Amino acid sequence: MKPEIAIPLGVAGILAAIGTAIANANGWFVGHPHLVYLCWGGSGALIVAAIAIAIFGTKPVPATIKVSPCELHSTASLRREEHHIFLRAKIELIGARRTVVRRYRMELSRAGVLSSPTFRDDVGKWEITDWSQWPIPHDDVRPLPTKLTAGNLVEGWVHFVTNLPPRELQSSLVRFFADTSCGTGTADIPAGREYWNAVPNRMILERN
User: Fold this and answer.
1) 42-45, long-range: CB < 8 A, 24+ apart
2) Which helix (H) or strand (E) holds 109?
3) Closest by CA position to 126, among listed 169, 83, 80, 86
4) What are the pLDDT digits (tens) for 38-79?
5) Per residue in 143-153, is it b (16+ CB within 10 Å) or e — as a string?
6) CA 129 to CA 6: how far, in whole Å?
7) At how many degrees (to 10) do helices 3-24 and 33-56 cross?
8) Mind listing the pLDDT tens digit for each residue in 105-149?
């Protein structure tokens, strides 16, 4: 426990003990009940102060959010103006004990023109399939976790939607961000057709 929290709690315990002793005394403090209330009141104030320090006085520990992209996949939409982007990535928290990802976001850069695909929190509605196999597999698309713990590498998928056509999408640099209270982790995927749908015959489709 941190000193700024432990010291007020320790003093509060001492004051509470003194107040109780005064209340039970038959000698020195008889006829001085205000001393009892003074000790108990001081004890309560110190406890409140320690709680306030614990809640509001704790500063976020600087940390490193290590992001490693694993696979980039695009899926055509039934709507011509939309195109689905799926990114599988690994994230590791270094430096802090734990943190929570506030949001995942993506930026596309093509010839200096930037665009920000829209994040969709619906990965569980999609599945990974391969029509070259029999029986055809229907594997879950697991979301990239948002709760990070030091030493625990997490992996999963994120889903974004853009209005860029496939040709412009594949010629864009992809930058992925994981925003937390401890800082932001980033990862870049170079522009190039070879980085998209690299696993042969793999498809990510919406569940029926």
Assistant:
1) 42/12, 42/15, 43/12, 43/13, 43/15, 43/16, 43/19, 44/12
2) strand 98-110
3) 86
4) 554 555 554 555 565 555 555 655 678 999 999 999 988 776
5) ebebebeeeee
6) 56
7) 160
8) 999 999 889 999 999 999 999 999 988 888 888 899 999 999 999
